[in-house]
Fold this sequence. Notes:
This protein has 18 helices and six strands. By secondary structure, the protein is mainly alpha-helical. Strand 3, helix 18 and strand 4 form a beta-alpha-beta unit. Helix 9 packs antiparallel against helix 10 and helix 13 packs across helix 14. The longest helix is centred in the last third of the chain and has 41 residues.
Amino acid sequence: MNKTDVISWSYFSHQKKADIVNILIIIAIWTVMVIVVNPLGNFPLNDDWVYGLAVKSILEKGDFSFPSPAHANLFFQAFWGALFCLPFGFSFTALRFSTLTLGLIGAIGTYLLLREVNANQKISLLGALLVVVNPLYFGLANSFMTDVPFLALSILSFYFLIRGLKRESISEVILGLCLVYVNILIRQYAIVILLSFALAYSFKKRFKIKFLFASFVIFSSGILLHRFYQNWLYSTGRTRLIPENVLSTRQLDFRNHIIMISLIYIGCFIFPIIAIFFVKKLKEISRRQKTITILIISSFFVVVMGRLIWRRQTMPLIGNVLAYFGLGPFTLRYPDPLKVSYPPYSLGLKIFWLIITAMGVLGALLLLYYLCLAIIQTFSESEKWLKVLILSAILIYIFLFGVSYPLDRYLLFLLPLFMVLLVISNNYINEQDIGQKITAFALTMTFIWGGFTMAATHDYLAWNRTRWQALNDLMEQGVTPEYINGGHEFNSWYLNDPKYPRKRGKSYWSVNRNDYMISSGLLEGYKEVKRYPFARWLLLKQDNVFVLHKIAEDKTNGT
């Protein structure tokens, strides 16, 4: 072995050791965050009650079934969750840890994916940590919702597909495709990956007939798998109703500015990485180009931000999980009928979300710039398959997001893709070229997101834990679920009925009677039975969950 070989091996060995250290850092931070928020508690969150019913059917009957219909396919995730329930039996705590495990795998996968597309170790670690501290990602990882498992398998799919195409490795491509097919059996949106791969593979093979046919088979097999699975569920009686196909297209609602909203969310979530690449870009251009670029971006920023402020719109712009007071959904009765109870909107939170919105708008404008840059580069480069893969996945998914009902958690799929797009649209950045100021800014933003995410996740879990303590105490006193309105998850878990008719004066969840109410405030026509206090870290206050009992109506005529 000559001197050059020794130096090369030494460099390679050092790189691998640094990668291992970075992965251990990701694992350590994830573990600490999980311990801090305390995910323990045998109660459903959001819509994961329906997925819990599917797991129970596997454990109790040895067969998969969907007692209540859901848009997600779930199949693989249900068996994954059942595996975690084997040691101690069914519990939502076990299901939560099954998702937390996949969440950690997804974060590590993000690091490996960024390294695979030639990002340096500092940017790859930052990208992985931005996934870890993302409030949607970490919050949903502390549930049995399908979003985090779907994203984790999507990241691994892209990793192996890119490796396989770069190295002409059939085995890695097959592994990546197998992960996509498994992922379709969690959420059918994984078909987007097949379509983007089919396009990229065709580009790489210069549209030769046999490779076009292979691409068609790969994509169409995913569609057939989804359709076969849905029909199998219904024809075998494993579900009572097939929900509306979420892959069907409806008219794109431009009135809601779905595309811009998507970019604003992603822009604020990955702004530290966007800032690093943009600062590097400014150093590479002339002073005149720099001035023009800053003026154009500033002008668009003022217009977009001014429009949002005029309409009194700040982040969060769409609903479901991320809320101004932390994480949700918040599914208890409000002092007004059929609404939910939100904590007060403090001045500190207003300032925080105004800053986040401004950062998101700036990030969105820069992402638009990089999207356009990537499209131009795709037409001007000879080796274009990687940009075709990432660009097509982003654009197709945003289109599907625009034609379906938009929920903030659906945006998670775009998080690693835009980070990859930033890497492949720019020249390689050496770690030494990343200045101390921009590094300090990136770390500060990551730390702030981490603090917000831990506090918000803790509050959401503490609120639910307290709510279910109140509900369990009430049932131990002999009150049956039919007489309790305990919020969406409780009502659905105990009383779910797809044919439940909505009744005037009652929630649209499966409520039978409202004799007892679990609420975050006092309600007219109800008297307080008991209140259960819990601490909100994000709002720095103590809050309460109330158990209320309906006051009997006076049926006398007053004589």
